[in-house]
Specification:
This is Stage II sporulation protein E. Keywords: Hydrolase, Membrane, Transmembrane, Transmembrane helix. The chain starts with a helix and ends with a helix. The protein has a 5-stranded antiparallel β-sheet, with helices on one face. The chain has a 5-stranded antiparallel β-sheet with strand order 8-9-10-11-14, with helices on one face. Helix 11 runs antiparallel to helix 12 (about 285-295) and helix 17 (about 385-400) packs antiparallel against helix 18. The protein is built from 26 helices and 16 strands.
């Protein structure tokens, strides 16, 4: 076992041990709660709290039901063996009522009915007939209290995840006080020397409430607990006044901090000690409240803060006001920087940015020609084509073909008597044009980069100025739709609400049956709901099973792409050598954007291969840094022109496929035509821009085409067509084979292979050749009832 595997195993074991300890701790708390509720006697005769507690835990916390059962039976044992039998019969009858399939009763009614029927039968047997009226009254009170306590516990004991994700309402707080008061009545016998557990807990609870909620909460806690304890015991109702005044004074002392709360909570008891001698304010009482006050002073602040956040969460209006202030402040700073960027862009681009004058189709005579005695013969009425030769020389220098340059230079030498000086002037003129082009491209590159920075800032400011409550309203709409579908989603967060790039995280309870997976509910119900709300497909990006703070499943949904691309590549080098001047790359910039790069270096040498690969690599780097494609193309023009090699250029055919909206964007720098096959229709994307690195011509324009499902995109290098045969005939033949094969049911690999084999049967490929074939199809969600391909086949049949 490697060290990494050992560490992973150790982490898993530690998590299992931690979860086991957590389960034991919670189980112990349920055991003690059930124990004291079983000992809680109301009106000194009724024991109504054990069965409601069992019913709630059995329904919502099934794994802890055994702790509640044992705790309830143990608590009843101290009241007598008969009470143990009564409780066992009540639980058994309750389970029978709930499992009766033909008559489904509400849980509270089932609990009350089980308590009532068992008590009637038990008391009838004990009195051998109709029990006395007082006993009947106690039986009725026990059934009624069981009904009421079940309703309170249903409010208090929510699902496990709601303890951590929802805020405590006043109803839930009141229910908790009722249950806690019932537990305190069951603790009356827990007195150790001068220490009374119920008095200690009552004091601690009132002080903690005063610290968290000041006067209102502390007073409510004291009044509710004092009333319920007094009513349950049918005596010491004067303790209601003591508890209420204790809460009031403790809350008033909250301004003085913890010590103010502790001191204020003791003063009412001292007052009533001298005011009312009938109250049981003895040494046990005072010892217990002093211990409770001291322990209250040691409670960590983080616990009180956490409870305060649950009871009194910050209002959304305050949070939104803070967010608005932050948005306005940051926007103000960004706008200042935006003005500076705009100024620099105008300074560089708008004021001093003038395009270089492109060379005319027919160049002017050189200075050498103007002073030559044969000027009229070469440039005058007896023009012998010298202007055309010089124009061809500039063009061939731009293309970079050595053989063509050599042929044109030989023709110039044959006609010109001062060819050496002419070539010197031509080289100087070419150098001047390149310097001017380089200078122009440098300025334009800076201007485009400033424009990109300006666009990024505009986008950032626009996002910050968006409605701050948009996410809140969207989350509420989704939660409402899920509730209508009876889907329990206890937490939902919209991380991104941008069309086509939405991201939503939903927390659900784990699967409860063996055949159901954690993603079944999300795939079958939530995905269609999200599609109806946003009118775009979604997919499940990630599923995470969490155990902390409770067991749940987090499912991340994101916008699914509307289209998908399948592609294949055909590539060969001239004479089957190791080096090919063609390079290509196909990759995803993100799930909704697919990039295609095809470059052809000049020649078939190792240097040509290096040039085209370098161009592909630099273009990928620019795109990875979110550079605008137009800016990237001009930047590459500038960077590649700074190379030391002479006359080494490379074409670049660059395309982006928007898979969300079905658009094709194409940029070509010396690249060949791109074909889009749509049934019998052929769409061509062309451009006349110069190769990358040749700065005399700088225009690289973007062409946009709308794509449809079933379209086939073909991109190729110039080596596909021979220079010997007719170009138009080769193109027509290639497209005819492509249209014929594209409509078949073959795989895209088989299609491209068939096209190239058929084409090579007519024309020979003489140069490095690369052909890219891409097929665009619709993405069908996994929850869809049918697939379009199957539907169309069945319809046609």
């Amino acid at each position: 076992m490697t060290s990494i595997e050992w560490y992973n195993t150790t982490d898993v074991d530690d998590q299992k041990i931690g979860l086991k300890k957590k389960q034991i701790l919670i189980g112990s708390l349920f055991f003690l709660t059930a124990f004291f509720l079983a000992q809680s006697v109301v009106f000194e005769a009724a024991v109504p709290f054990s069965v409601p507690f069992w019913a709630i835990i059995r329904t919502k916390y099934r794994e802890y039901a055994k702790f509640v059962l044992f705790g309830s039976l143990a608590g009843c044992f101290f009241l007598g063996f008969g009470q143990v039998l009564i409780l066992a019969l009540q639980i058994l009858l309750y389970e029978c009522i709930m499992r009766f399939r033909y008559w489904q009763l509400p849980q509270s009614i089932a609990v009350s009915l089980a308590v009532l029927l068992v008590q009637i039968m038990w008391q009838g047997v004990m009195y051998q007939g109709l029990p006395p009226v007082l006993v009947q009254f106690y039986v009725g009170c026990e059934a009624a209290l069981a009904l009421i306590m079940t309703l309170f516990m249903q409010v208090l004991f929510v699902n496990s995840y709601e303890w951590f994700t929802t805020h405590w309402t006043y109803e839930k707080l009141g229910s908790g006080l009722v249950v806690f008061a019932a537990m305190l009545t069951g603790m009356q016998t827990v007195v150790i020397s001068y220490f009374s557990l119920p008095i200690f807990l009552l004091q601690l609870f009132i002080c903690f409430g005063a610290l968290v909620g000041s006067v209102p909460l502390a007073t409510v806690i004291g009044a509710v607990l004092g009333t319920l304890i007094g009513v349950a015991k049918l005596s010491f109702t004067g303790m209601l006044s003591v508890a209420t005044l204790t809460g009031l004074c403790a809350g008033m002392g909250a301004k003085g901090g913890r010590f103010g709360v502790a001191l204020g909570s003791i003063l009412p008891s001292v007052f009533f000690l001298f005011y009312d001698a009938t109250l049981p304010l003895d040494s046990v009482y005072f010892t217990s409240i002093v211990i409770g006050s001291v322990l209250f002073l040691t409670i960590p602040k983080k616990y009180s803060d956490k409870v305060r956040d649950k009871l009194f969460p910050q209002r959304e209006e305050i949070l939104l006001a803070r967010q608005n202030w932050l948005t306005e402040h940051v926007t103000y700073k960004l706008e200042h920087f935006q003005h500076f960027v705009q100024f620099m862009k105008e300074l560089v681009f708008d004021r001093f940015m003038t395009a270089p004058v492109e060379a005319a189709k027919e160049v002017a005579p050189m200075n050498t020609c103007l002073s030559c005695f044969r000027y009229d013969h070469c440039w005058g009425a007896q023009n012998n084509g010298m202007d055309k030769l010089m124009t061809d020389w500039f063009h061939m220098k731009g293309v970079g073909k050595e053989s063509a340059i050599h042929r044109v230079e030989e023709q110039i030498r044959y006609k010109c008597v001062k060819s050496t000086k002419i070539f010197e002037e031509l080289d100087t003129e070419l150098y001047r044009e390149r310097i001017n082009g380089q200078y122009f491209h440098g300025k334009k590159m800076i201007a485009l980069q400033l424009r990109d920075m300006s666009n990024h800032l505009n986008q950032l400011i626009a996002e910050m100025k968006e409605d701050t409550i948009s996410f809140v309203s969207v989350e509420k709409d989704i939660v409402e739709r899920l509730k209508e579908a009876n889907i329990e989603c206890f937490q939902l967060d919209v991380l991104s609400n941008k069309p086509g790039a939405r991201k939503i995280v939903c927390a659900l309870a784990p699967a409860r049956v063996n055949w159901e997976e954690d993603t079944t509910l999300a795939e079958r119900m939530i995905l269609p709901i999200l599609y109806e709300i946003f009118d775009e497909p979604f997919e499940i990006e990630k599923v995470v099973a969490c155990e902390i703070p409770f067991r749940h499943v987090q499912i991340c949904f994101r916008s699914a792409i509307s289209f998908e691309v399948e592609y294949d590549i055909y590539s060969m080098s001239k004479d089957a050598t190791l080096y090919s001047g063609d390079s290509h790359a196909l990759f995803q910039l993100h799930p909704g954007l697919f990039a295609i790069l095809l470059s052809d270096g000049m020649g078939q040498s190792k240097e040509a291969q290096h040039e085209s690969r370098k161009l592909i690599h630099l273009m990928r780097e620019c795109l990875n840094y979110n550079m605008n494609p137009e800016t990237a193309m001009h930047t590459l023009h500038y960077v590649m022109a700074l190379k030391q090699q002479d006359d080494m250029y490379a074409t670049l055919d660059f395309a982006l496929v928007d898979l969300q909206h079905g658009d094709l964007w194409s940029w070509k720098a010396g690249g060949m035509s791109t074909y889009i096959l749509r049934g019998k229709e052929v769409l061509k994307v062309e451009s006349n821009a110069a190769p990358v690195g040749f700065l005399s011509i700088s225009a690289v324009e973007a062409e946009k085409r709308k794509l449809k499902a079933g379209d086939v995109i073909l991109m190729h290098s110039d080596g596909l067509f021979s220079s010997v045969a007719d170009w138009d005939e080769q193109e027509e033949t290639f497209l005819a084979f492509a249209q014929q094969v594209a409509s078949t049911n073959k795989t895209i690999q088989e299609k491209l292979t068939t096209i190239m084999q058929s084409f090579q049967g007519y024309f020979e490929i003489e140069d490095d050749c690369t052909v890219l074939m891409l097929e665009v199809t619709h993405v069908v969600p996994t929850w869809a009832v049918f697939r379009p391909a199957q539907y169309s086949m069945s319809k046609s049949s």
